[in-house]
Each structure stands twice: as structure tokens, then as C-alpha cells.
Write a structure and sequence with these properties.
By secondary structure, the protein is mostly helical. It is built from eleven helices and two strands, in the order H-H-H-H-H-H-H-H-H-E-E-H-H. Helix 1 packs parallel to helix 10 and helix 4 runs antiparallel to helix 7. 23% of the residues are buried.
């Protein structure tokens, strides 16, 4: 039966893969200049494209029975899912801009690390075999104080903050200062506890003992099996379905949303009949 669930995921992925193009053509190009592509659009559709890419990678691993990394990919897909849900929940323009500004702000912080005169900066440059002046020449704006101040102001302004102490882009209420609280905010705490925490063990390299079975004078080595992956496939399918509906709904592409819902119903019905 696993093949049928994989086929369903691939059908959903095909829709997700065409979603950005549908939005660009039917929402923006068809209504230009009334609808212009903005930062929050880049955030939403960029996170979607990342979900699509990671789902493709998950499928490759599962189908090749090369399963190390599937936990990590599912965890990262969940992060994208939560971020898109939060951005589209309300105040989409502001939240999307905050996400984009946080990336620019964090890039500035990385630049500071790479160009630091401290020992940590020296070690990074030695590891990369790049001289400090090369970084400065490549990113001249990041050495300009006015530009740096603008990056900082752009990041803090949507959050109504005047300090850099609570630097999570989604902390709009002053209370959502970590990913678990963000999941609670959008009603996904159960998914966080069941999926995110569970799959984090692969990300943080804490699965070493799961590959061995110890008995007296005997050690057996295990590998991940393909039958363990049905949950990953179902989970990612549900995340993608939800996000496709959210994005079609946000951009008011009703005919595409209706077509997708019909296709999902037909495919689910087919799978149920085969079980």
C-alpha cells in the first residue's frame, strides 16, 4: 500500500510545484499593475519552493531505500509549513516583510563574524581560505553604517521593538520567542511535540544507539527500513495539501483551489478503495 501513498504524495507535489507559476501568472501578471510582487509574496512563495525542493529530496531517499536524512527533511518541511501558516494567518504583509528582513539582518551578523578581528573570525577565514578584505570587497554595503542601521531598523520596526534582545521575526506579541510557542500560537503544538521533537534526534546526531541491539556477547547492527517511512509520506502530504489550499485561498484563485480539492478527493477515494 505504500506505493499508493507515495503516488498520492507525488500528485500533491506536482500541484505544489506548479503553484508559484499559477500565482505569478494568474494573480500578478494578469492583474498588473494593480497587483505587484512584494516582499511578503517572496517570503510565502520562497518558503513554498523550499518545501517542494525538500519534498523531492525526501522522495528520492525513500524510493532509493537510503533513509538516513528523512527525519531531518520532514522536520525542515514542518518548519516551512509553520512559517507559511503564520505569515498567511493575518497581517501577511508585515509578517512576510519581517521574515525577509530577518534573513538580511542575520546575513549582516554572519558578515560581522567573517570579518571579525577576534580569534573566532580568524578561524572562520582560515577554514574558508578567504582573506578578510575579500569579504569586505564582495559585500561593500555591509560595511556602510547607514545601510547597516537601515537593516536593523527594518528588522525591528515590524516587531515594534527598539532593542535587539528578542530577535525572532515572528515575535509580534512579545511572547512568541521560540518555535514551540509559534506552533502553539497557530494551533500546531501536537505536531511540534510528536514530529518536531521526535525528528530532531537525527538533526542533532542523537540516534547513535538506535543502530545497535546489545545482548550478552552479541551486538546486532540495524538500518532504517522503508516501512518506517509511511508516516513521513503521510505527514508531508498533509502539510503540502494544507499549504496549497492556504496559498490558493490567499491569492483568491478559486478555480484552481476547486480543481485541486476535487483531484485530492478523487485520489483519496481511489486509495481508500484499494486498501
Amino acid at each position: 500500500m505504500g506505493d499508493y501513498f507515495m503516488k498520492l504524495l507525488k500528485k500533491i507535489l506536482k500541484e505544489a510545484d506548479s503553484l508559484t507559476g499559477n500565482v505569478l501568472n494568474k494573480h500578478f501578471q494578469a492583474n498588473f499593475p494593480n497587483h505587484e510582487f512584494d516582499q511578503h509574496d517572496a517570503a510565502t512563495l520562497g518558503l513554498l519552493e523550499d518545501m517542494v525542493g525538500k519534498t523531492n529530496s525526501l522522495i528520492v531517499l525513500v524510493e532509493s531505500d537510503n533513509l538516513n536524512g528523512t527525519d531531518a527533511l520532514t522536520r525542515m518541511i514542518f518548519e516551512n509549513y509553520v512559517f507559511i501558516k503564520f505569515i498567511l494567518e493575518k497581517d501577511t504583509k508585515t509578517r512576510g516583510e519581517s521574515y525577509v528582513n530577518s534573513i538580511r539582518y542575520n546575513n549582516m551578523k554572519l558578515f560581522d563574524l567573517y570579518t571579525s578581528s577576534k580569534e573566532s573570525g580568524e578561524k572562520v577565514r582560515q577554514f574558508l581560505s578567504v582573506e578578510k578584505e575579500k569579504f569586505i570587497q564582495k559585500f561593500p554595503d555591509l560595511s556602510d553604517q547607514q545601510y547597516r542601521q537601515k537593516l536593523k531598523d527594518d528588522f525591528l520596526r515590524p516587531l515594534n521593538l527598539n532593542s535587539e534582545k528578542k530577535l525572532t521575526w515572528y515575535n509580534f506579541n512579545g511572547k512568541t520567542n521560540n518555535f514551540r510557542k509559534l506552533c502553539e500560537h497557530i494551533g500546531k503544538e501536537a505536531e511540534y511535540l510528536l514530529l518536531y521533537k521526535l525528528y530532531s534526534s537525527e538533526v542533532h546526531a542523537t540516534q547513535a544507539l538506535s543502530y545497535f541491539k546489545f545482548k550478552e556477547n552479541y551486538i546486532e547492527v540495524f538500518r532504517k527500513k522503508s516501512f518506517d517511512q509511511k508516516h513521513h509520506i503521510d505527514t508531508v502530504s498533509n502539510f503540502l495539501m494544507d499549504i496549497i489550499r492556504e496559498i490558493y485561498g490567499y491569492y483568491k484563485l478559486k478555480s484552481d483551489l476547486g480543481r485541486f480539492n476535487t483531484n485530492v478527493y478523487v485520489n483519496h477515494k481511489t486509495v481508500r478503495e484499494l486498501l
